[in-house]
Structures are given as C-alpha cells and as structure tokens.
Write a structure and sequence with these properties.
The complex is a heterotrimer of chains A (506), B (218) and C (243). Chain A has 23 helices and twelve strands. Chain A has 506 residues and is of the alpha/beta class. Chain C is built from 14 helices and seven strands. Chain C has helices at 10-14, 17-28, 45-49, 53-66, 78-83, 87-90, 95-107, 111-118, 138-143, 148-155, 178-181, 183-200, 210-222, 232-241, and strands spanning 4-6, 72-75, 108-110, 131-135, 161-163, 204-207, 228-231. In chain C, the strands form two sheets. Chain C has a four-stranded parallel sheet with strand order 5-4-6-7. In chain C, strands 1-2-3 form a three-stranded parallel sheet. Classes of the chains: A alpha/beta (506), B alpha/beta (218), C alpha/beta (243). Chain A: Keywords: 4Fe-4S, Electron transport, Iron, Iron-sulfur, Metal-binding, Repeat, Transport.
Chain lengths: 506, 218, 243
Amino acid sequence: MSQPGVMDETVKSRAGLALNDDFLRKAVKFTTERLRNGKKAASEEHGNWEEWRERGRQIRLHTIAHLDYYLNEFVNNARANGVHIHFADTSAEAASIALDIAAHKQATSVVKSKSMVSEEVHLNHVLESAGIEAIETDLGEYIIQLAGEAPSHIVIPAIHKNRYQIAELLSKEAGEVLEPDTTVLAGFVRKKLREKFLEADIGLTGCNFAIAETGSMVLFENEGNARMVSTVPKTQITLMGMERIIPSWADLEVMATLLPRSATGQKLTMYMSGITGPRRSADADGPDEMHIIIVDNGRSLQLGDPEFQELLNCIRCGACLNACPVYRHIGGHAYGGTYSGPIGAVLTPALNGNIEEWNDIASASSLCGACYEACPVKIPLHDMLVYLRRRKVEDGHGNKLETMGMKGFAAVAANSKRFALAIRLGQIGQKAVVRNNGISLKLGPLKGWNTYRVAPSLAKKSFRQQWNSLDQELNQQQHTAMDTSVRERMQQIVRDRGEGGSKHGK
Amino acid sequence: MDDIATKLKRPRQLHAPIHAFRGSPDFWNELEWDEEQRIQAFTDNFVSVGAHIARMSNMEEVAGFIGNKAHELSAKYLIRQNEQALTDLGLEEQLPNVQVSVWNSAPDVDWRARAAEADIGVVMADYATAYTGSVTVLSSPEKGRSVSLLPTVLILIIPLERLHTRLGETLNRFDEAGRAQLPAGIHFISGPSRSSDIENDLTIGVHGPGIVYGLIVG
Amino acid sequence: MMKVSLFITCLSDAIYPRVGEAMVRLLAAHGIRLEFPQVQTCCGQPSYNSGYWDETRVAAKTILEAFDDSDFVVCPSGSCTYMIHHYPELFVDEPEWLDKAKRLEAKAYEFTQFLVQVLGITDLGAHFPHKVTYHPSCHGSRLLGVKDEPLALLSNVKGLELVPLPHAEDCCGFGGTFAIKMSDISGAMVTEKVDHVKETQAEVLVGLDMACLMNIAGNLRHRNEPVRVMHLAELLYEGVQTR
C-alpha cells in the first residue's frame, strides 16, 4: 500500500527548496514574464488569435483522431524518401535502437539538437554508458549538460543559472577564465561546438512536426544547431513522439503561426527547416543515412481516453509554463520529470500510467485555468488535473486524512439541517480561539493557512440564521415595483430558454 | 497502427479522412499585399531581428554590393551556390584576393569544410515571405545547405518577384509538388542566429551566421 | 410571477452573510425579491476539485433540489456558479438529476452577470468616494467569462477612483484545498498578490468571489495592512445608502 504522507512530500519539498532559492525565483519570474509579454504582443499584433487557436485545435484533434491513418502515411512516405523508420514502444527501446544505430556506425560522438524526447528516454545516459560522447549543442542544453542538471523550462532550459555560474562552467571547459559576459560566453560555445559539429559521426534531432503527406520532418530553432546536426554529420537520427504529425504543409502554416508566438513571442523562429529524407545522391551535404525513431512511451495510452486524448494535441510551446502562477513560483525542477509546468503535471502521470507515484504534481495547482487560456491548441489542462485527482481517489490512493475529511464534508453537506447545525457548532466552538474576529491558531489544517494569513471567524449569525428576519423586514417595507423593461427582459430570457411551463412551478 | 485503431475503438482508417480544417482559416488566405507593402513588411521584420536590408535595382548592383562588403569585412574566403545567376555576378573577377568557392563544382573537394572556413556565403532565395520576413532556400546538388549555414556572414539575394505575402503561399507549393519532388532540405531563414539562454540576455550569432544581409532586387 | 432565487454559497452563508444581505437589499430596491431555498448547502467544489466526486454529488443534489423550480438563480461567486457547469458531467448516469442539472446551467448567473446581462442595469446610483482596486477571480473571469460586467458597474459608481491592479489576472493562490495541501506555494502566491495590492495604494480591494477575497484579506491582515476588502455587492450596497 502506498504511503500518501511520504509521496506528498516530494513535490512539496522540492517546491520548498525552489521557494527558498531567491535567484531561481527571480529568474523564473523574469523569464516567464518576458515570454508571456512576448506572446501577448505577438498574438495581438497578428490578430484573430482565438480563430487561429481553434484552427490549430481542429487540425490537431483531426490528426490524432485519425492517427492510424496519418502515422501510416508518414511512415510510408518517409520510407519512400529513403528514411529508415523504427518504432519504439518504451523509452528503453528508443534508447537502445539509437544505441544500435550508433554502434553499427561505429560512432564515437553524437551531436544533439534540442529534443525533449531524448530527455524523456534518457538517451545521453545510455550513450555515455556505452562510451559514446553525446554533446548537447543548444546553448542552454549545453550549459546544463556541463552542470549535470535537468532542464528547468521547456524552451529556455538553463534559466535557473546565472551568468557567473555559467562562466564558471564554461571556463572549466575552455581551460581558461572566461568573463561572465554573454557575448564572450556564447562566442566560446560557438567555436567549441563548431569543432564538434564537424567531427561528429552522428547528428541527433528532435522533431517539432512530421508532415504525413510527404514524409517530411520540421524543425523550429533560433540558434542554427538543429540545421547543423542535420546537415554536417554523415548519419542523422531523429527522435519523434508518435503524435507529432500534421497532414500537410498547408497545416504547417497554422502551426508556424501558433508555435513561435506562443513560445517566445516571435513571428517565426530564425530557422524553420523541412527535411525530406537523407541527401540526394548528387547532393554534397546532408546525411548519407537518416533514421527516425517513432516513440510511444505511453502516448498511445491516451488514445481512446476521452479525458486525456487531447493531451496529444500539445505542440510543446511552453506557453502554459509561462502562464502558470505555480510554475512561476517554483520553477521546473520541482515538478520532478522531463516535462514541467502544467503540461508536465498532466503528461508525466499520463505517460507513466502510474498515478500513485506522480499524483502529487497534480495537486500543485490552484486550477486557475491560465494554462488553458494560454494554450494555442486549447488543451483543457485545468480539467485534466481534476481528472487525475479523481482517478487517484477512485483507485483507492487518496490521502487517508483527506478522504476522511471529504466524507465528513459530504455528511454535513448532505442536508441543510445538518449543515446549519455544523455552522452552529462552529460558532460556539470557535469562541475559544477567535480574537478580533480572526483566528490565528496554527493547528492542524489551519497551520499552513495561518502561516501566511489570519483566518476569518464564522459570522455570529449565518446568512440562513438571519434570513427570516431579513425577509420579514423587506415584506413590511413598501414594495418597489420592477421596472417594466426589466421584467420584459427577464421574461424574454426565460422564453428564449424554451422552458415553457416551468415558470409556474412544478 | 492496428493498435492505435483499437485504442480509438474503431476499425483501421484506410482512406484519407476528410480534413475540414486543412491549412489556415479562409480569411487569412485572402491577405495579399502589393509590392510596396511586401517590401516594407519584409524590411521591417528582417531589420527588427538584427539583419540588414539593401534595396538593389539589378544584379550588377548586387555584385557591387557584395564586392564592397567583402572588402569592408576583409573577407578571405567566400562560397556561393552553383547557380547561373550567381555565376553571372562575376565575383571571382571582382575579388581576385578572395578565394571564391562554388558549391559542389568539382569532385573530391570537402565542400562542407569550404563552407565552414568561408567568411561570406552567397545564396539566391528560392522564395521569400513578407509577413514573417523569411527567405526560403531549397537544397540541390548545386545548392548546399551548408552555404547558408556555416559561413560567418550570409548574403541572401531576393528577386522581388519571388517575394510573397504569406508563408502559406510558399508552403502550399510543397503540397502541390508532392513528395517525390521535394528536396532533402527546405530552409526558412528569418534572420541571424540568436539565443537568450544566458540570463535572458540576447546574443546574436550562436551557431548559424551572425551577420545577415537581405538584398531585395528588382 | 418569476421566481428569482439566491444561491448563497457556503462561505457567504457561514462567514460573510453581509454579502448575501447586500444582494438581497440591492435587488429588492429594484423590485426583485430574492427567495432563499433553505435546502441548499454547498456547490461541492471542495470535493470536486480534489477528485472526490461521489461526495460532490451529495452536495450538488441539494443545490439542484433547491433551485429546481426557480426561473433565475443568482450567486455571489463566479467559481460556485461555474461549478454548476460541471453538474451535467457529474450526473451523466442519473437521468433525473441530469435533467435538473442542464436546466440549472441555463438559469444560473453570477451576481454581476445577473445585473448586467439579465436586468440590463449597470448603474445602481451608488456613491463610493474611495480609491479602489479590483481583483478578477480566475474561475469567474476565465471560465465563466465575467470580464466587462464588474468594470461596467464600477465605472458608474460616483466618486470611485479605480486603480488597475498590476498583474490582476494572476491567481491569488486560494484554489480550495490547494491552499491547505500546498500551503507554501499558495502562501507565495497570495503574498505576491498582496504586494500588488499594496502597489496600488488603494483603500479598498473589491472582488466577486469571497473565496479569493478571504484568502487575500487573510494575508493583508497577517501583514497588518489596513486595506478594506469588500465584495462588489457590499460596495454597491454601501454606495446606495450614502447617497
């Protein structure tokens, strides 16, 4: 049997660490605000944002609803282009297929551009264990690779690091002291990674979108490293979540409109690349051999599940992270998974299919709905968090104390007499702890609350206790007639509702 | 695939389903700017991300511009695509002190290395989009992807008649062309390489070219 | 005669009865006598949000029963009003209750929605010469779509100086059981919210949902800040009395 108390500690304690790290909080706040403002400006400038969101949603819904068709199309077309397609059901399989390809090519080094899926399957670890150097080339990812840490944000992975920490890390690599100046540090990375690009045996990319009709894969980036790793090395491996499909290039315009604006407030990323197969035989650059590993790892579990299928619509823009007030306070590491923020809170348990271990992430939300409002493809993450919580309870893994509390709640809320009685008892009982109409006691469930607040006391008379006298008082006053136009409005509304006779009671 | 269909609780979808919401909304597809608007929009967008724009009347002016830039930047190596229009620029004659490489113009040369050592890369745009300030380049045996990626400075020559309003106008061509006609690399370039990964501080020229010129010709 | 009923909400019932009183009196002055069906207890949000849906159904049934024959239901909380929109999902397997749920959805209104959309009233003739800032509650504004109505009402209050709240749309950190379960994160959020309230130098913080206001007021009090926290109904009622 699981231990709810211990589990609840994980996100809470990680969050606690984050809340105490001033730099992290400032950095996360600054970054998310910048990105959020960028998105707002870009979407407003573009106009008709709600229509674009709905379009994006429809395209993704359609594709996922017909995933068997479109994935099949993609695979057939990609193969016709000369791509080797592999299927990986689990993360272990994905990593091992990649390793096999590398071993087959006798590769000693792999240069990687940004790929969340590669983090998901812990690819670097698998490659390194086999003695193959795996080098992250995205500036932020490179930094955290040197630091041995996980990304804290989907789009800007190293925001938890300040320039001094970065300078220290890079100076060690450089073998000389580098100034904590962005231009200097970036300049070093450009030079250093150039060598790696040109020497590497294998280039590994993620995949933003895969176009079914032509078997092409699309990459969005600003640095140029994804282009590098898919142009220079002789072998290319692409890791792709099975849901990243869109039907056509025409559909790409919608994604290209939504993704950069939502992620960073850009009209378009500096580079958007559509790669259709390995190099043509007469081409003088591009990989000789290209592999795409299509990864399931729990994605197909969401298919046919009306509550979670929409999760597969996600285009990994990170807008939900930037909108989430909880994320803003605790940063990405507190979520304890590859994916953080609202999408991570749902994706991690959903992909793992084991609610017990990860459910505490689903508790770290006030359900404010900002994520849903921000999502360019309208995924109802706020609803999904409640579904996760409900499944945990239904599976019998609810927190015992909370379950008891809820049963108590139901008992009291079941009928108004009990409810009124409970209030009455509370009014009497609180006399001992009320001071100046407030309760500061830090006991039991009030401990967390009253660390930051003074709890209110119950009113001396509840509304229902006052109702009769209020009603009678108004009866004795001169009755004000309803304005006729108001009455007509109300009657019209009722008529429009099409309720017919219910106006006159049962 | 069968597995997917099972999960979706229906038999395999074997024929193309009707995609009612294909592509951008209708109102968007009606957007068309005239020449002046396109030039202005492209310029504004391109410049806003730290790239440079110059307006040229003809290819002679382009040749002159590139020659001047090469001198200004003390360039030693230049690489260009193997296209007639670029050959006609006569850069080799104009710049005797610069090693001008022509992509894939001879066997047994490491063209990637040539591109990597180049100070300047010169490329013709296949298409361009005003709304996003982007240039589209297609790979081919004569047009290497490396030429627009590896050099320090990138010069993009954009014939005016190839400058369209919307991204979709270019993207739709690839749907129309069909799988078998597509090149291995289709690249949309919207400015210099950049990153804000260090403390949100913007830096230009991370892996791709940090200095980008767009020459609108015509 | 149309039956217009008050959905008081458990918080207002037990802790903030003056909000209910304000609503009743304000509407009475416009010829609408609110009825109060005693059968109601709680909308069920606390248990719903935590995933305890059986318990939620128990509470929800009192609400469905209470308002079954009402023509309009008015509620001083966007989140409780929105909760009703979950009822069809909750009772999908109970046709009788499902029917009640669908009918209730169509006739339930948050207070400012009722004033502006149903009654067509945006000016109650209130006079409230104070510096006020407004916190839009998350469920009400994002999910129920209540955005313009409160602003329209506030703009017509004479003497009222409305100061925009920085980052107004940011959640106050209540989230029901979230505030108890993840108390430190919640605490950080409400602290930030109050920091923003202080920035406005407003005398009064007004809102539409006592859950949020209770949360923010609690932190204000904890920090000895003298900002007065009021529900819009209370503000309007006080405003019409001091004409």
